[in-house]
């Protein structure tokens, strides 16, 4: 029925093989790089087909009745191994012996549909944009092969029907992120950043994998649907139990992938990669994998209050903290990076208050407007000849009108100004947090919203308004980007503007987005704890007004400081010590280096020394002792044991020394002796 | 012709041989002296054979002559080898059996 | 199963000796001919090992099974002491035999231009080594096993000692003596088993056969000491912490092909020994020792990884990474669960593939630059793109990226260890090795391949030639195959592993160690709280 499902991730993988392997062989054989038009058509074309297939699957899904919105395609058994005996879940789920089996299956449900469409859609646009952005790069084919591999991994993550398939994609996107951050590998900072991203993600994956182990050993399956059916019947844990443990362990994985406190440190550094990569991987898709994963496992999280509470707490703290760090960054991409972390924090806040569909909604709108912001930044960076410092920009709207207007749409969306998409999704999160009784989350989220408006306004003013602070040499070539880059910008601009209407708040009509996702959360509705408070529509509308006011407050502060007063540059003189601390990201990287990285290295060195001195020393010591003993015994052997033997030989030798003088060698002497002998013998015989 | 005359003759020849072996330095002469001693013995054998009327002695003599010929051949070969090697036939210089 | 009238196991084992004899007859000067003969022999040796797997499920092969072993050869050998010439393989041996023939061929192929002195002797030793290793994986008579175990030691000693690096003599002697010390203890234990068996069944039933010993019903006291002796012998070979220090020296000094064989196959003899002999023979002792062994494994994993991280010599780094990976392998084996054991065996193969390939990778730059110091390199991606790609794939395989072989092994091992509720803490600790693994491998990759190409010598470095690419192709294919479709290989392991774990299932239950035990948590209290909360609503 849905035999094409496997093609959605596989097509980009084929693109990876054609461009990557083919490109390498072609380069080896003909000493030329693969034709750029060919590479672009293969890479973008295959992703576009995946997008079409996702749309087909989406339509098919939409035509199904609500309770059967589920398409599955079995491919093959990935791992089939021996039997395992599960522990079971307390006295609710019995222990059983089952075969350890991991399937390579894809499935499609409303949540996968949203994710697949976002990934393919935004991914396709970014692919197209990247053609323009990367055109002059010598590693064109390499770049696109990695992008395609990323699409494969991300789609596998989204469409895999069990935790291990998800993990395959999860680590796969991590690797692609590593390869693409370190794309300019001749730069040490780039390869450092790539490595950091991978290793920090590995820390998260450690938690994730232990969580999966525990989950499997408890319930005996990795399959989402089966797990949902088993866990969906369980009551919620109020104490710390297995589900809470699993939830927290999985959340560690999510903090790594989605750059939440405490594992967010890799994302700002990841901006070393080419800008389309930042847009695709580090804004729109990969970093949202954690949000997707928790939503996918919502049946589990809704049964553990503790882990939900912690998810929400870390989320909202990240939203605030990252927004503060975005205040004074000079690099345009760094600001956007912190903004991404902050927005991801909002999504986790939504998950934490069990407003899963609001989280996914924000994930989608964020993918639109943040991809747009990054691509706009990329467009600026290309036009400015790889200048990323906002201190050296200003008044760019004159030169780049399309970039300006599209980014304006994204800016309004992220600040949450109606009717742009971000307003609906962010306001929904804040409202849900409030309505479900998490007042603290609401307040912190609101403050973060003020901050968001502040740093985004600062970004817009510094780049597009004010005095021109551009290097005159660069100014000569300053012009709007080509159509291949602006068209994706325009499409994303439209999406960022109207995307929010998919999920209107209750006071404006029916929330179609939430309705669409309903089947995914079927196991959650029987859970009494997550009932919303009862509020009137007018109250809800008033709260939306408060959100808008918060955004305006941030806007006016930024406008006052940067637009009116024109405080440029940002430095310690104008802002005092506070600036220094924030600009240096609260010295978090230094702290991590001091606490973990350098300590691991020290430990490595210490162990190295220990290995040399003690363990190998022990071995060599044994050898030395043996040699010493051997020396003593060889002395004994030489002078005592062998001495006795030699003594005998000496006695014989000395005595023979005398006797052997008889042996003259002269025949006459011998003959005479013979004669004498005969004479004597004769005499004896005769005179006897 | 008394038996003793033969015995005297043979003992004189034998003594000459012994003296030759002991005092001459030339290997060839030593070998010749050896032949003398052998022939002295041969003479004795024949005399006693005649005395007892028994042919065993004569047969024995022929054996000795044959062996002596062989011995002379081997001895001369050795002498030639020594001469080639040492460039001398002086027996005192061939004292390689010395301790 | 026979090939040209020779039983197939004999054919596979002794085929390298034919090449060995031919090379003996070739004059020393004709180096190219010697190389061709050696390569052809090794390749055919690989080909004739393929029927083993092709015919695995044929009815006549299944019918010929004895004690779970296929292709059995069993003839009297030394009648006076009752030693028999007993060959036979099960799924575990099968995979290792195939790995050996494949890696043997690759190692010989990779030496084409690396070995310049004493070419004839080199290939003679390589082929002799091949026979020795294959014999170890097939022998089921302990006496025969011991003979092969020692046979393979000698050529390796010479390979390190003659064609090695600057400290080759030290390394070779250390390798030889260390291993010998272990194997002597093992010999003692074998003799102890032999006389124990005689003391139970009488002199007329004297035997060295593993399957006879299995049913001897050894008492725990005896098991304790015999296990300990076997443990030392095998642990040195694996090598497990703290018996590992011969490994870095031997690896650093050995020629590239020697390192490949050493890492790929020789170390597996230790792990294989545990699986084949220690586990089934001494279950009581094994259970008693489990916490100690697990601790050693976990220390090995973390310690090996941390030490590897700080190495400045590429080969030493890979050598210490072996300590870490083999710690992981042994963790799975000692967990005594089906998945753990299967994962352990798969990880043996994986380690052979990825670490073997990493040694080849180091060997390639060593051959061009004659240094193994990491700081001498940097930016090689610019001049050697194909090399960079292969290096990257093998790095990823080594750090266990899903989709490649390393992940399957590590995941199954950790899941298998986690399945034992009393061993969970070890699994959790061991899993951290995965983070460190990524750290040291990626750091190595960064320092060698990335950055600016600033050294003159490195700019001139040539990318891989066709022969070199060809040495990697089978390894990459295997890495992907095991990563994407491990079920193909796992099915061969199912029965042999089950035979071992079945022994333990009962024993563990007797020792009150439950594989699936229930948590004791006050569930009623929780229920009350939930009910209260619901009624509040």
SSE layout and pairings?
The complex is a heterotrimer of chains A (688), B (99) and C (537).
Chain A: H1 7-30, H2 36-62, E1 71-85, E2 97-108, H3 110-134, H4 140-159, H5 163-181, H6 188-219, H7 224-231, H8 242-257, H9 266-269, H10 275-284, H11 289-296, H12 298-301, H13 305-325, H14 332-352, H15 356-383, H16 401-415, H17 421-435, H18 439-464, H19 472-476, H20 483-498, H21 512-517, H22 537-564, H23 572-575, H24 577-583, H25 588-659, H26 667-686
Antiparallel strand pairs in A: 1-2
Chain B: H1 3-23, H2 27-52, H3 56-86
Helix pairs in contact in B: 1-2, 2-3
Chain C: E1 2-3, E2 6-7, H1 8-25, H2 31-54, H3 59-63, E3 70-78, E4 83-89, H4 91-110, H5 119-138, H6 142-151, H7 153-163, H8 168-201, H9 210-214, H10 220-237, H11 246-253, H12 256-281, H13 283-309, H14 314-335, H15 338-369, H16 380-383, H17 385-399, H18 405-418, H19 424-449, H20 456-459, H21 466-484, H22 487-510, H23 523-536
Antiparallel strand pairs in C: 1-2, 3-4
Molecular structure report:
The complex is a heterotrimer of chains A (688), B (99) and C (537). Chain A is mainly alpha-helical and 688 residues long. Helices cover 70% and strands 4% of the residues of chain A. Chain A has a two-stranded antiparallel sheet. By secondary structure, chain B is mostly helical. Chain B is built from three helices and no strands. Chain B has helices at 3-23, 27-52, 56-86. Chain B starts with a helix and ends in a 13-residue tail after the last helix. The relative contact order of chain B is 0.13. The model of chain C is unreliable at 514-523 (pLDDT under 50). With 537 residues, chain C is mostly helical. Chain C has helices at residues 8-25, 31-54, 59-63, 91-110, 119-138, 142-151, 153-163, 168-201, 210-214, 220-237, 246-253, 256-281, 283-309, 314-335, 338-369, 380-383, 385-399, 405-418, 424-449, 456-459, 466-484, 487-510, 523-536, and strands at residues 2-3, 6-7, 70-78, 83-89. The N and C termini of chain C lie far apart (75 Å). The chains are: A mainly alpha (688), B mainly alpha (99), C mainly alpha (537). At the A-C interface, α1, β1, α5, α6 and α25 of A face α8, α13, α15, α17 and α18 of C.
